[in-house]
Q: What sequence folds into this?
């Protein structure tokens, strides 16, 4: 009997917010591609274009899979529609198997300094984006039975760190969507929906906000260091694989034990 694997060979995957080579989204895209999936790299800012193109080419060269590169705004219906349409076109596919809703926005600010623009930006990327992208992969993307939707959340939805109230609220909304969609899309389409919720992870965003990361790391129960993007990607790969076919509606905290059993 051959050894068990986490192969996703032949699958078509979209990973939103994956254009920066050292980010969680890029690590997830690499992990899926390394195990056989064709992937769509997505980003929103024009300044990220060279990095997204370079990442895509490195994945093609290293893993020999097809890679799409798409610039669009997930927080609008038009942007979400474009991401799915361009993925199908560039990858010459007729459906989407895996959606990883990784694109997000967050800012550390005390309540009295949070601006309307920041509120709209965070809810746009973190809540509207989940809704629009999920609608599009189910309808336009014709996600089949056995499809996977994986929302990248945050332990901020449970922990409530100071200065991250709006961000935490958007991630809590995502947790609720995961729970509702797991039932709805599971019963109507045979699709699983789960949340992967990282704690502090070594990315550009974390490096920019050391005042939040330091205290969180001290709460960890093993190895008081930030996590790595590959550690998040490994969990996503498992949930995207056939091994996770019976797992849905789950909130998986990847935080070295900060939340303990409370999640």
A:
């Amino acid at each position: 009997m051959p050894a068990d694997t986490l192969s996703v060979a032949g699958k078509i995957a979209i990973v939103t917010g994956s254009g920066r080579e050292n980010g969680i989204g890029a690590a997830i895209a690499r992990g899926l591609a390394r195990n056989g999936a064709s992937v769509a790299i997505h980003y929103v800012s024009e300044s990220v274009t060279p990095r997204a193109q370079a990442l895509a080419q490195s994945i093609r060269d290293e893993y020999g899979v097809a890679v799409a590169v798409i610039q669009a705004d997930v927080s609008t219906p038009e942007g979400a529609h474009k991401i799915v349409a361009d993925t199908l076109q560039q990858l010459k596919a007729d459906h989407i198997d895996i959606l990883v809703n990784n694109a997000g926005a967050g800012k550390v600010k005390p309540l009295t300094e949070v601006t309307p623009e920041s509120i709209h930006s965070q809810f746009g990327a973190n809540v509207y984006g989940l809704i629009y992208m999920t609608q599009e992969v189910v309808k336009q993307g014709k996600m089949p039975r056995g499809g996977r939707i994986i929302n990248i959340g945050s332990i901020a939805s449970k922990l409530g760190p100071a200065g991250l109230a709006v961000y935490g609220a958007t991630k809590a909304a995502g947790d609720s969507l995961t729970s509702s969609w797991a039932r709805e899309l599971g019963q109507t389409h045979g699709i699983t929906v789960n949340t992967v919720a990282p704690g502090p992870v070594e990315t550009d965003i974390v490096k920019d906000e050391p005042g939040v990361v330091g205290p969180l790391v001290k709460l960890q129960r093993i190895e008081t260091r930030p996590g790595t993007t590959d550690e998040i990607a490994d969990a996503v790969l498992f949930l995207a694989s056939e091994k996770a076919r019976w797992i849905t509606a789950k909130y998986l905290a990847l935080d070295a034990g900060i939340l303990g059993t409370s999640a």
